[in-house]
Write a structure and sequence with these properties.
The chain contains two helices and five strands, in the order βββββαα. The chain has 83 residues and is of the alpha+beta class.
């Protein structure tokens, strides 16, 4: 990972990935580059395009809700349907 020309990389004792970046002055823009070896590049590029409003999310709300339910169940968190 690089941030404004500097790099940061850290693996904690339990195997989770983290990075500590130095404080920056107010303003920007700042450049953050993360390299996952190409595995997730296309997904991250599409997500960035959706955030910027360049493309529509190809998945509907039902799909997104199913993903969140699955994630919560996998983490052992009960999902309570509220209508």
């Amino acid at each position: 990972m690089s941030f404004n020309g500097g790099t940061a990389r850290c693996v904690s004792s339990n195997g989770t990935w983290c990075a500590t970046l130095p404080p920056q002055s107010y303003g920007g823009p700042y450049s953050l580059v993360m390299d996952f070896g190409g595995r997730y590049d296309a997904q991250l590029i599409d997500f960035a395009r959706m955030v910027r409003g360049e493309i529509e999310n190809p998945f509907g709300y039902d799909h997104e809700l199913a993903v969140e339910r699955t994630l919560l169940r996998a983490c052992g968190v009960p999902f309570v349907e509220q209508r």
